[in-house]
Amino acid sequence: MGQQEEQDFILALKRRDEAAFSELVRRHQHQVYNLVLRMLGNREEAEDVAQEVFVAVFRSIDGFREESSLATWLYRVATNHCKNRLKYLGRRQRGKLCSLDVVAEHDLRPTATQEHYHPPDQLLEGHQAEREVQQAIAGLEPEQRLVILLREVEGLSYQQIEEVTGLPPGTVRSRLHRARLALKEWMARHG
Q1: Which pLDDT tens digit goes with each residue over 126-171?
Q2: For a tag on the chain, would you pick the N or C end, based on fewer CB atoms within 10 A?
Q3: Cα angle, residue 150 at apex, residues 145 and 151 outer, rounded to 5°
């Protein structure tokens, strides 16, 4: 989306254009849901939080100052909702929510757009490797998990991660470094 097109889209959102909000959800629902699911590790919680994110965006779009892209702001709203939910769940002592078989199963389902056939043994190996990576990511502290997901899974730049998290550049880099080291150590122990 070009800069002028995004500005027009944001103006439509600020006018509370229902078609624009439907388009916003259509464009971003999968990324928001996948980020929230990976952060929380529980499908039901992720569905609730993802819906809350879009409701919050609808309510607070007037406060969007356009200092970053709309997608970056949306990630920030999603991130804040995840942090709040993790705090809430921690206070309620519901234990860890890392049901990563659900995450791996959801992310690895073949889609209708897959162009290549993979033999079953290759698919099984890929599923097992994905589960191991998901388990390793789930074992990270939430702050490290967030930056590694934003960088390695969502593909955000360092600057975008800084905008999403509100962290200074050095903190983003050090959390990513620690997260990568922790993942490497986990894989060495379990691989």
Answers
A1: 567 677 778 888 889 999 999 999 999 899 999 999 999 999 999 9
A2: C
A3: 100
The answer to whether residue 107 sits within a structural domain is no
Structural domains counted in the chain: 2
H-assigned helices in 61-157: 70-91, 100-108, 120-138, 142-148
d(CA 70, CA 56): 14
Number of residues written out for the chain: 191
- Find where tokens 């356009």 sit: 66
- Using alpha carbons only, what angle is made at residue 28 by residues 124 and 69, rounded to the nearest 5 degrees? 125
Q: Which helix (H) or strand (E) holds 15?
A: none
For residue 190, what are the contacts with CB-CB under 8 A and spacing of at least 6? 132, 135, 136
**Res 127: pLDDT:** 61
* Same domain (yes/no): 132, 188: yes
Q: Is the dihedral of CA 59, 62, 65, 66 positive or negative?
A: positive
- Residue 137 included in any domain: yes
Q: pLDDT of 103-115, one tens digit each?
A: 444 443 344 444 4
How far apart, in whole angstroms, are the C-alpha atoms of residue 84 and residue 94?
14
